[in-house]
Design a protein that fits this description.
The protein has 230 residues and is an alpha/beta fold. Helix content is 31%, strand content 20%.
């Protein structure tokens, strides 16, 4: 335990909390100060000047990261029997309906994304209180409620991620792993940031992006210089 503490102290010493870095420099530093022995995720935290309690400012969306997340998403498809073969052929990890709804209601949650066909949404509504807080509820806005389940699976497996603002007006999202190059992390982050900027609500007043920080699973946070964001 002391060894980990020492490593964290060294990492903390390399990060000046009063300094704001360009995105690429921040990504290089986050790799340098990562203390995990595994291939940790690199996350970005975007604080917005919005009121997420207002429905038109409750930002959510999807983005396809150019280099993926570095993690293969486990996909469950909830559909009628006529769509099961398409889902399996596209690479879904789990396919079904009533049996999986029952498993989820009993606590099973070994999945990252749920894709559903429109006709089964009424049944899925029964477990909405379980899926909603975990960000797993299928939604047409994120492309996870669709008849074209094959294309949706391909997109998710290819690096498409969903994001949404939380109650504190912050978007938290993974943009890769520490094994990625700073260039790949920067390109992934830029793709996300471009999408977030494009989703700025017309009703939002004042500064839209208030602050951005990046960190790995086990590293101190690094602040970004907002002027460096394109």
């Amino acid at each position: 335990m002391a060894k980990e503490t020492k490593k964290r102290k060294v990492a903390n010493a390399k990060v000046d909390r009063r300094k704001y870095l360009a995105l690429k420099d921040a990504m290089a530093l986050v790799k340098e100060v990562n203390t995990a022995k595994f291939d940790a995720s690199v996350d970005i935290h975007i604080r917005l000047g919005i009121d997420p309690r207002k429905s038109d400012q409750a930002i959510r969306g999807t983005v396809t990261l150019p280099h993926g997340t570095g993690k293969t998403k486990r996909v469950l498809v909830l559909c009628t029997p006529d769509k099961e073969a398409e889902a399996k052929a596209a690479g879904a990890d789990h396919v079904g309906l009533d049996d999986y709804i029952q498993k989820i209601s009993e606590g099973w949650m070994d999945i990252d994304v749920i894709i559903a066909t429109p006709s089964v949404m009424a049944k899925i509504g029964k477990i909405g209180r379980i899926l909603g807080p975990r960000g797993l509820m299928p939604n047409p806005k994120t492309g996870t409620v669709t008849q074209d389940v094959g294309a949706a699976i391909t997109e998710v497996k290819g690096g498409k991620i969903a994001f949404r603002v939380d109650k504190q007006a912050i978007i938290h999202s993974t943009v890769g792993r520490v094994s990625f190059t700073p260039e790949k992390l920067t390109e992934n982050a830029n793709e996300l940031l471009t999408t977030v900027v494009r989703l700025k609500p017309t009703s939002a007043k004042g500064t839209y992006i208030k602050s951005i920080s990046v960190a790995s699973t086990m590293s101190p946070g690094i602040w970004l210089d907002l002027k460096s964001i394109h």
